[in-house]
């Protein structure tokens, strides 16, 4: 894709699932990839996979809910690779299920801290560095859970609606700096996160994909392709968009 080769891309939550697939896709498109995760061993494995696919990569530790950690990550990436052009703020957790009246404050805080504060902190520290390059792109991972509601996982749904709002606000702020900010809203994707809901239970997967016109989970590479496209010149007039990549979640 145009405008990816030779650029520096930072991916959080790169140790697994969608983040790992995006890191590999950026590498295949010719970007230098900073693969960051709270699980540093998993990030290291992703960096190895990017290199196996012909790209250049390095692994970094980050806890996206911790401002010092995020600030240190962005500085380390710039020190290592000379700048930052693209960021995929993707790290996220599902948290505990249960109705609002039975949710614990602890679970609420944990999910909001990783999924929403993490995206805020990422953009806060990435934007000045991307601005220094004269422009670039940010993609935040929201979800169909950022567009619709459903019973039983309210902190997660609230966090993802927050990511959509944050994405639109940031897009309005930085458009004149040549920075585009979008979100991907995946439907059900075949990753370890979904595996924790469906393991050993085929009916659970069937129920999860039922609201999608395409009654199958996405391969993580299908989300990664959208993320790379949202950073490429091919999407040069697209900003502030929560892009559904959901197999037709039309319910
Ligand atoms: P995953 O569980 O396979 O990977 C998440 C990665 O984030 C893990 O490597 C984990 O170590 C990392 N992580 C967790 N907390 C972190 C923290 N505080 N700091 C840094 N890294 C941290 O999950 P998956 O499915 O790849 O999810 C990635 C993103 O996509 C999440 O934001 C998730 O909410 C979102 N998503 C996933 C969907 C799915 O069906 N799998 C659907 C829609 C959105």
Q: Main sheet, how many strands, which sense, barrel?
A: 7 strands, parallel
Question: Given the C-alpha coordinates, what overall shape results?
Answer: globular
State mean pLDDT (0 to 100 scale).
97
Helicity range: 40-55%
Bound molecules: 1,4-dihydronicotinamide adenine dinucleotide
Give the CATH superfamily. NAD(P)-binding Rossmann-like Domain
DSSP strand content: 15-25%
**Terminus-to-terminus distance:** 32 Å
Order of helices and strands: EHEHEHEHEHEHHHE
CATH topology: Rossmann fold
Quickly give the structural class: alpha/beta
Radius of gyration (CA) equals 17 Å
Total of domains? 1
Count of DSSP H/I helices: 8
CATH architecture: 3-Layer(aba) Sandwich
Low-confidence stretches: none
How many runs of DSSP E, i.e. beta strands? 7
CATH class: Alpha Beta
List the strand order in the largest sheet: 3-2-1-4-5-6-7
Pfam families: adh_short_C2 (PF13561)
Family: Belongs to the short-chain dehydrogenases/reductases (SDR) family.
Organism: Halogeometricum luteum
Protein name: SDR family oxidoreductase
């Amino acid at each position: 894709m145009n405008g990816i080769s030779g650029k520096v891309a930072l991916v959080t939550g790169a140790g697994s699932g969608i983040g790992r697939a995006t890191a590999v896709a950026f590498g295949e498109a010719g970007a230098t990839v900073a693969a960051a995760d709270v699980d540093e061993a998993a990030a290291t494995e992703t960096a190895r996979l990017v290199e196996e696919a012909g790209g250049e990569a390095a692994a970094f530790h980050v806890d996206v809910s911790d401002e010092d950690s995020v600030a240190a990550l962005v500085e380390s990436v710039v020190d290592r690779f000379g700048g930052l052009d693209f960021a995929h703020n993707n790290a996220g957790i599902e948290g505990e299920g249960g109705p609002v009246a039975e949710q614990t404050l602890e679970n609420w805080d944990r999910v909001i801290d990783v999924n929403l504060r993490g995206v805020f902190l990422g953009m806060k520290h990435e934007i000045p560095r991307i601005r220094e390059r004269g422009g670039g792109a940010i993609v935040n991972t929201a979800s169909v859970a950022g567009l619709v509601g459903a019973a039983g996982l309210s902190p997660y749904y609230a966090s993802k609606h927050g990511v959509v709002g944050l994405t639109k606000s940031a897009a309005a702020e930085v458009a004149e700096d040549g920075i585009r900010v979008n979100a991907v809203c995946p439907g059900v994707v075949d990753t370890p996160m979904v595996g924790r809901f469906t393991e050993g239970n085929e009916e659970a997967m069937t129920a999860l994909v039922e609201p999608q016109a395409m009654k199958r989970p996405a391969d993580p590479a299908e989300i990664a392709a959208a993320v790379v496209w949202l950073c490429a010149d091919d999407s040069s007039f697209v900003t502030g968009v929560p892009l559904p990549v959901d197999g037709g979640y039309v319910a």
